Amino acid sequence: MTLWTTVLFASGLAFALKLVGYVVPHHMLDHPVISRVTAMLPVALLSALVAVQTFTGQGGVLTLDARAAGVAVAVTALLLRAPFLLVVILAAATAATLRALGWG
Amino acid sequence: MDEPELDGQRRKEVLRQCLSVGVATGTYGISFGALSVAAGLNLWQTIALSSLLFSGASQFAVVGIVAAGGSGAAAVATSTLLGVRNSLYALQMSRLLRVNGLRRVAAAHLTIDESTAVGVAQPEPPAQRLGFWGTGLAVFVLWNLMTMVGAVVGNALGDPKQFGLDAAAPAAFCALLWPRLKSGDARAVAAVSAVIALVVAPHAPAGIPVLVAAFAAIVAGLLPSAPDARG
User: Looking at chain B, which residue has its C-alpha nearest residue A12?
Assistant: First the structure.
């Protein structure tokens, strides 16, 4: 496979996957059980993504580093009802500071 | 559907979320562009990945596998596996957006973690649409611009990790999920799926742990919705 073939194949399949979800007829998605499942899907996928982005390193190995500290500060800020932007900035600043100090 | 328009205050609030997620994610485009060129893809192939594939995790997988000398087939397979979650996002966004024709094609292309997260985080339908489109477009424009910057100048500006941006992404998703977690059902789904993903992560290729966690949503949907005592 040339590099161009790889790029175009990967792109075509990525788009096809995205489109699949939109061509499922609405009347099917409106079924109560299906709509409960689809409403929960982003919650499940994004929570799993947060866990993986925060706690895993190379090869999916569990890792505790500056990212976990940043997210912990973000969750604390959320508990204290901090606004969105502040939560994100605090997380980044925490991780950046810890790394500057040579940890994680 | 008759819906009240968003008032100015809410509009500004949603747009601010769109833009901050766009900036936090878009900045990573520099890393992607730099890595892609270092992996041996040329400028146009790098730009094609950001504009046509447009899904960060899949793009990093493609250039990572190419850089490691892996086959094109392996790169396509991993990228595709990582893209499956976009199909699942699309199911919910399709219900919320109700789009057809060209708009549907555009919505599909912009369906990624970030646009879905901001969209579903909003309680009212007009804000859901604004959040999805605003974030999708902000990420698309900034991600592609920053990809070009990264591809041309490399990581001259420094590793985004240095600025803690790898903690900013999960923190932003936490903040976006936060209002949903008022419901006991959603809290249970979030906790269970996070645990599933971490248990599976060391034993499965990238992309699989998050997909396995989706079973938490399926089980929760099939169970009769519990009366929400705590929440």
Answer: B53
